[in-house]
Amino acid sequence: MYHITSVKRVAGFKVPFRWLFLCLSVIIAGLLLTGCKSDGNATPTLLPTDVTFVSPVTSVPTIHISPVTPVSGDKRGLPEGAQQVGSQYSGDFDGDGQQELAAGYKNSSGAGGGIIVSDILETGYSPVWQEELPPGLTPSDFLMRDLESDGLPELLLFAENDGAVEQHLFIYTWTGSTYTPLKPAAGPLDGQSTFLSLYWLTMLDDVDSNGTTEIITFVENKTNPETLSAAVYEWNGNEFHYTELYIIPPRFKPTGSN
Ligand SMILES: [Ca+2]
Ligand SMILES: [Ca+2]
Ligand SMILES: [Ca+2]
User: Fold this and answer.
1) What is the pLDDT of residues 221-249, one digit of tens each?
2) Which residues, 6 or more positions from 136, have their beta carbon under 8 angstroms from its beta carbon?
3) Interior CA angle at 200 toward 199 and 206, to 5°?
4) HSE of 168, CA atoms in CB hemisphere, 13 A
5) 91 Cβ contact partners less than 8 Å away, ≥ 6 residues apart
6) How many angstroms does the Cα of residue 172 sit away from the middle of ligand 1?
7) In this predicted model, what pLDDT tens digit does every residue of 190-225 receive, in sequence order?
8) For the whole model, what pTM was predicted?
9) What ligand has the least distance to the C-alpha of 207?
10) Distance, CA 119 to ligand 1 centroid (Å)?
């Protein structure tokens, strides 16, 4: 059961028949050989071969955030001239009893941007936290989801570089006094500050149907550079840690890529 609510295909690609045949053979062989999770008592997870790559999901726990009612006459909490990206949320994000508003934005130039969180006051919005993307990246979507199931929503900003080869997901979590980045731990993204996927959007889904959301990115396959391998990161109660427990078919790079 996959909870796909919207789709963005970054670039078209076609798969030569001989590669498709080889790919399917490898998948079938892999299923036969490895067919279960390493704990020995779970059902193998295989994403459908026509899986699409999504940002929003519906399987994460409900959090008490709501659509924004604009305060008259202000800029809906965005920096001057900025354009809203994705959804905008209001709610008590830090559990202090006061309402905040969060939004992703592009700068007035259309390039660059970030996230801004503001207190909601009778007089308008008062910024309390803001994070700008590194140079060369532009936001493409913004979400809030409680990925850790602790009752407080995380800030999720999707961003891409020029050419859209790099598809980043920045995640920030409330840590008592400020928002702190949640970074991938171990695996192919170890040491990176974002959940970076090549060509395809970083995907959020509960791939093992246990009620918690995994983060799936696509990285270059070391043994076959024409293909991309899925890297699955699972919340272990402390961090999003790389896991090899899932069997996901490789994907070909879009035609014309290196
Ligand atoms: Ca609050
Ligand atoms: Ca949380
Ligand atoms: Ca899960």
Assistant:
1) 888 888 899 999 999 999 999 998 887 87
2) 161, 162
3) 155
4) 21
5) 63, 64, 65, 66, 99, 100, 153
6) 15
7) 999 999 999 989 999 888 888 889 999 999 988 888
8) 0.73
9) 3
10) 8
